[in-house]
Amino acid sequence: MRWSVLVAVGFVSSLGLVAPRGVGADEPTLLADRWDAVRIGGAPAGHGHTVVRRVVGADGVQVETTSEGRMEMARLGATLTVEESSTTVEREDGTLVSLRKRSKMSGTETLVEVVVRDGVATIATTTMGARREAKVPVPAGTVGPWRAERLVAEAGFSPGTKTVVRLFQVDLGGPVVATSTVVGPEEVEVADGTKAKRVRVDATLDVMPLTTSSWVTPDGDPVATRTDVAGMRIETFRTTQARALERGGGKPAEVFAPTLISTRHLVPHARVLDGALLRVRSRTPDRPLPPLADERQVVERRDADGSVLVRVARVVPPPGASGTRPLVAPGADVAPFLAATSMLQADDAGVRAAAAEAVGAETNAWRAAQAIETWVHRAIDKKTLDVGFASAAEVCRDRQGDCTEHAVLVAAMCRAAGIPSRVVMGLEYLTGIFGGHAWAEVWVEGRWYALDATLGYGFADPLHLTLGRMALAEGTYGGEFTTLVAGLSHLDVDVVETTVGGTTTRFDDASVRADGGRYVNAAWGVSVTPPTGWTIEVRGPSEGLSPRLATWTAAAADGTKRRVLLAADSLAVRTTLADAARTFARGATLSPATVDGRPALVGDGARSRRIAVVVDDGDSVFVLAFDGGGADDDRAAFDAFLAGLDLDAASAAAK
Predict the structure, then answer these.
(1) What are the residue boundaries of the structural domains of the chain, listed by start?
(2) Coil, helix or strand for 445?
(3) CATH of domain 270-504
(4) Which terminus of the chain, N or C, has less C-beta within 10 A?
(5) What CATH number should be reported for the domain whose range is 511-654?
(6) 385-439 pLDDT, tens per residue?
(7) Residue 326, preceding bond cis, omega within 30 degrees?
(8) How confident is the model at residue 200 (pLDDT cuts 50, 70, 90)?
(9) Distance between CA atoms of 530 and 422, rounded to whole angstroms?
């Protein structure tokens, strides 16, 4: 999750704070000094500290709000640390004067400086040694954070009271509208774990379909806040400095796994599909689905339950229509996608050199873009989730990151090579789940085409569902990012059917069944007949991120439980048996064998005997694993499973 989203959530939660104390006319006065502890998913995650002062200077009386915060989160085991500090200056009537913010979400710090004059904010962003400016209109009535708090407090806390305030949020592109509604008294947990009755105030931002609840004291001070976003609960508690800074020694809160969307079936050949039909549904009735129709996605049907069927195609330029680069005299609608920005530094020396190395003398725009995708896939040799959101120049220098780092570097290098590009945020399927993902699109002869350097196949397969696109123009990317967060927080996605090589596969209850003790999976063309005494459980497609199809259990002679797992995965390129063994056998000692007419490796591991079978077209692997085996009767049972494994239909299904 981007830090800008958490900042926005935190700011919404601060609406409705204590009124200022009595102050002198011409002396600096402390108006507020607040420490908050932050929890994510119930685990300590960081702190926030805000100091508000009334100051008198050459420009008269002003209010200065200084905030700093640090958060530590985990993403599938990788630790992500983000830090921010900011100072906002406003006049007593709330008119915004300036803002200065430092943030660090990767190895490089970014400085944003905002000056507001005559209804226009000049936003200067400095990162990787380069400074860029953008101008954003500031409508009359836009106020700074202190005046926003005062307006809410002045309205009072009677149930039903509503206050609408226009704020300036640089992370979200500039002015936004915040609405707070008083719900009424409720009992809530406070910092020391006890319960107290406080007034609940719900707040929203117009650009973000999220609600933050604050529980405030009679004078408006929020002792606790709560926001549910993308499957996670983010909470703050007013506390002392010492408690806010406590780390607790526990593991950071996991923020990625809760956003994963499980599917009902495991999909074969996911990376090489020609098309897919997806069912998309909002779990929350009052949150509409994002726009889903585009060059790759066609909305085929809307059902009474609010779900839609979206057909997604793998789209590449037709032969002979791949365009030329660099693009000369782009139209006004395309020119912004060639511009260098603070996130996509297409004019950075390192990015330009990388683009030149990747494309060489290639003038065909599509082939050049594919060459850049391949270059980025290979160049980022440290695939890690502990980078928050690095700019293209930083990624080019450090060669590390996750999908967002791959996407921004592809987009920046394409722009440097004269190919219009943008970053796409959406969902990607992987082993039974859809998860948040980023990839790139390039503009070739009037149409956008998708590339995914995280995978590096020269296209984006149809199990990439687009939710939003980002030009990453100066000062706007925080607001663009909210589209993805909104999608992750309330969507369900499932695969209805897929098409590859002219063959269509449907996924429904009839395609996966257990007839007696026999397991049949028509989508994968696999069935298993277990020996007598084994009980089958047709599992969901994933346990964690492990692609499991089914599990059998039985009791051994000593009363302990034995378990056999059937796992499957589809690789997008041809694989060897040795490659499959390294991927799936987990260090087991394996020997060549033949199972159901296929070359296989069978052997013993520390806790199981495993088999890896490569189907005829070389892109599907089946693994049969015996957990807890070792005794002679266990070996006999496992041999019976091997004898009952039928892959005769797999070859036909794969072609």
Answers:
(1) 3-257, 270-504, 511-654
(2) coil
(3) 3.10.620.30
(4) C
(5) 3.40.1000.10
(6) 777 788 999 999 999 888 999 999 999 999 999 999 999 999 999 888 898 899 9
(7) yes
(8) very high
(9) 51
